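INTERNAL AUDIT FORM
Audit reference: QA-55
Scope: verify that the stored structure record matches its stored sequence.
Auditor: D.O.
Record contents follow.
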Amino acid sequence: MKKEMTSADVAALALELSSGETSIIDAKIAKIYQPAPDEIRINLFVYEKGRDNLVIEAGKRAHMSQHIRPSPKIPQSFPMMLRKHIMAGRITFVKQYDFDRILEIGVVRGGVETVLVVELFSPGNIVLLDSERKIILPMKPVTFKGRRIRSGEVYQYPEAQISPVDAKASDLEAVFAGSDADVVRTIATRFNLGGVLAEEVCARSGVNKSEPAKEISSDGIQAIISALQDVFKPLLSGDLKPCLVKKDDKGKVKPFDVLPFELSIYSDSEKESFPTFNAALDEFFGKAAAESVQEAVTAVKKEKVDVFARRLQKQEDAIEKFGTDADKQTRIAEVIYANYIDIEQIINVLKQARDKGYSWDEIKSILKKAKDTVPAAKWIENINSAEGNIVLNLDGTRATIDIKLTIPQNAQVYYDKAKKLTKKKDGALKAIEDTKLAMQKREKKVSNKRKVSNKKYWYERFRWFMSSDGFLVVAGRDADTNEEIVKKYMEKRDIVFHTQDPGAPITVIKTMGEDVPEETLQETAQFVVSYSSVWKSGQFSGDCYWIKPEQVSKTPETGEYLKKGSFVIRGERNYFRDVQVAAAIGLELEGSTRVIGGPTSAVRKYGQHVVEVVPGKYNQNDVAKKIYKIYVEKLKEPNFVKQIASPDKIAMMLPPGESDIKV
C-alpha cells in the first residue's frame, strides 16, 4: 500500500490548490493545530466557500481534508509560533519546487511575505521562511550533509534530481551510461519518479525494464522520452482523472494506491473515481489517519475492560493476605495460652515492682541483669512504658502483652483480630464471585463476536510472513519445501534471499510485479538471518544477500553434486551486512484468525499481543508453551486460543533452535 505522495502527486496537488474551483489562493489563515508529531492542520477561510482544512503531514501527505484528527488540549510550540507569524495572513501562491516532493505556500500578512515549505520526502519537514528565504522556524531542526535546517540559516533545497517532465535524450544518455542498475530502478531513483511511475514509463515505452540501463540503445532512450511525455501529459494539460486503485487484501477490497491520472499497469484493477485529486487524497490518506485514531480509542476502551482482570488480581491478593494474617493472630493467641503460667509470672513480677515504686527504667535494668538467672526474663524483647505493655518472643512468635489484662483477655485480643480478618476475607470472596460473574458475562460477549476462520492459504505450509508494506514472503522449512518453493512458486519478477552460511531457508518475496520498498527488504533480511543457523548457534547478527530468480540454478559445476534442497547461486549478490536477529509471535484476530511470526515490525503491523523472542536456552516446544499460556491469560478464552494458537502452531512460527522470551 502506498505510504507517501509521489512527485507527480505533488504536481497535481499544486495544480488544484492554485487554480480553478479547488484553489486556495487568497484564502485567509485562521488557527493552526498539531494533532500528531509530524502533522499540522491549517484552518482556512476560502473566499465564497467558507471554512476548510489543509492537512500537512511531513514526509507523507498534504491535501484539503474532511477527516480531522482531534486537536490536542495543550497546543504545542510549533503551531503556536506559526500562528504568531502567519495567522490572519493570506495565501498568495501554491507551487511545486522543480518537480520534487516539495510544496511551497506563499503567505502575506501586513505586507510581510513568508513561505511555508513542505518537504514530503522522507523523513520530511515543515519550514517557515522569510522573504529572503532565511529559516524563521523549522518543525524539526536537523543537520544533514550539506544542509542545515535551523533557525537563521538560509534554506537549501536537497540535491536536485532530473525532472522527468523536462528530461531530454541527452539527460537519459548521461544517466544511463553511469548507472549499474536496470532501467526501471534507474528511472525511479534518478528521475524522482518512484517505483510505480517508473514501471508505467517502461510499460508505455516497450523497453524491457530489467535490462541494464547502460545497454539501452538510442531508440530505446527515445521511446522512454516519448513515454515520459505521454505519462505526464495530464499534468501539463490539467486534464486529471483522480482515482483510487483497489485490491483484494485477505478477502477485503481495500485502497492500494491513489492516482491523479490513470496508469496502464493498473488497467485490470478495480478503481474508484473522484471529482478532485484532493478528494481522492483525503479518502486514501485522511480516512486512514482518522481510522487510526479510532483504533487508538478502541484500544483505550479495551484497556478499561481489562480492569476486571486487575480487580480480580487485587481481590485474590487481598484474600491471601487476610487468610495469612488471620492465621497469624490465631497462632499468637494459642501461644499465649500455651505459655499461660510463665507469662502470668512475668506480669505478676512487673506489677509487684511497680507497686513497690520502681520506675520503668529501673525495671528494665533489673530485667537485663536477671536474663542470665531467670529464663522467662529472656522472653522480654521490649517494654513500652507509655502503653503499659511488653513484647514477648515466645519460641519465635512475638506477642504484645498488656500487663493490665489477664492472660485470657490478652489472648482474646488476638482472637478478635483473627475474626475481623476472617470477615474481611469472606467479604473479599463474595467480591471475587461478583467480579468473576462480570468477567464471564464479558467473555461470553467477546466469545460471541470472535469467530475462528478455518480458511487455509497455500503459503501456510512454509515459513512465511507478510511484510509491513503488504508483500508476502515465503521460505522453505526443509530440503523438500526449499525444492518446492523454487520449482513451483518462484517467479521471474520475485526477489530471492539467502545467507552465506548453510542451514538457511530459500526465501522469496512475492513482488506481484511491484517495486519492493526498502522496509520490506530489511524485514526479509532479518527474517532470513533469524530463521537460519545463525539463531541456532546463539549469535545475534549475521549476513545475507538478495539475488534475482534467474541466478538460482539446480545445475552444479562439472564434477560436483547437489543434494536435495541445495542450489547453485551464480552472478552478483546484493549483501545486507551485520543484520540483527529478531523475531516475534503475534495473534491475527481480524479477518484471518491465526498465529503469525516473523520480523517484529511486520508482526506488530498485523498482529496483537505480540511476544518478542531472542536466542536463548529453551527449546521450541517449551517457549511455545510459555507463549500459549501468555495468550490464555490475556484473552481469557482458552478454547479460542487453542484453536488458533496451540503450542504446536506457535512452535511452527518460531526460529529454529533455542530461544528466550524477551523481557
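Auditor finding: record pair retrieved intact. The chain has a mean pLDDT of 89.
Action required: none
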